[in-house]
Design brief:
Protein name: (2Fe-2S)-binding protein
Pfam families: Fer2 (PF00111), Fer2_2 (PF01799)
Distance between the termini: 40 Å
Organism: Sphingomonas populi
CATH superfamily of the largest domain: [2Fe-2S]-binding domain
Shape: globular
Number of domains: 2
Strand order of the largest sheet: 4-3-5
Keywords: 2Fe-2S, Iron, Iron-sulfur, Metal-binding, Oxidoreductase
Helix content: 25-40%
CATH class of the largest domain: Mainly Alpha
Number of strands: 5
CATH topology of the largest domain: DNA polymerase, domain 1
Structural class: alpha+beta
Largest sheet: 3 strands, antiparallel
Number of helices: 5
Radius of gyration: 15 Å
GO molecular function: 2 iron, 2 sulfur cluster binding; metal ion binding; oxidoreductase activity
Bound molecules: FE2/S2 (inorganic) cluster
CATH architecture of the largest domain: Orthogonal Bundle
């Protein structure tokens, strides 16, 4: 049994400690907004927050979460910066197919929480690991800048 805090609620799951967090979120907790892309920590589709820091949930054993608070795309809108990012994404129509976008939003929200006024180099560094097959990178950058301006 593993207990952890997900989107501000304590939860317990009957699962081996080495099960990746992504599987727990999607298959046991029904939070399917976090996506499986590569499964080897290379694409960013599975990005969630641990204590506000962006991590790849596909390679993180749930037993290593410990006391750190997990936040997913289902809960990021309840944080001020997450809400701003989501609104900026809507305002600028950032999304194309959408598959990568929960990971993009989680990475962007973590960036802005740590650095409220990122420049282009900061954005590139923070977002480099989040792949978008549809090539929405320009709109993602614009979305981050818009969310920053409205902070
Ligand atoms: S699915 Fe986790 S980084 Fe690609
Ligand atoms: S919007 Fe399609 S992969 Fe990014």
């Amino acid at each position: 049994m593993v207990s952890m805090r997900v989107n501000d609620e304590m939860t317990e799951v009957a699962v081996d400690a080495d099960t990746p967090l992504l599987w727990v979120l999607r298959d046991l907790l029904g939070m399917t907004g976090t996506k499986f892309g590569c499964g080897i920590a290379q694409c960013g589709a599975c990005t969630v927050h641990l204590d506000g820091v962006a991590v790849r949930s596909c390679r993180l054993p749930v037993g290593e979460v410990g006391d750190r608070a997990v936040r997913t795309i289902e809960g990021v809108g309840s944080t001020p910066v997450g809400a701003r990012v989501q609104q900026a994404w809507l305002d600028l129509d950032v999304i194309q197919c959408g598959y990568c976008q929960s990971g993009q939003i989680m990475a962007a929200a973590a960036l802005l929480a740590a650095n409220p006024e990122p420049d282009d180099a900061d954005i590139d560094a923070a977002m480099a690991g989040n792949i978008c097959r549809c090539g929405t990178y320009v709109r993602i950058r614009d979305g981050i800048k818009r969310a920053a301006q409205h902070g």
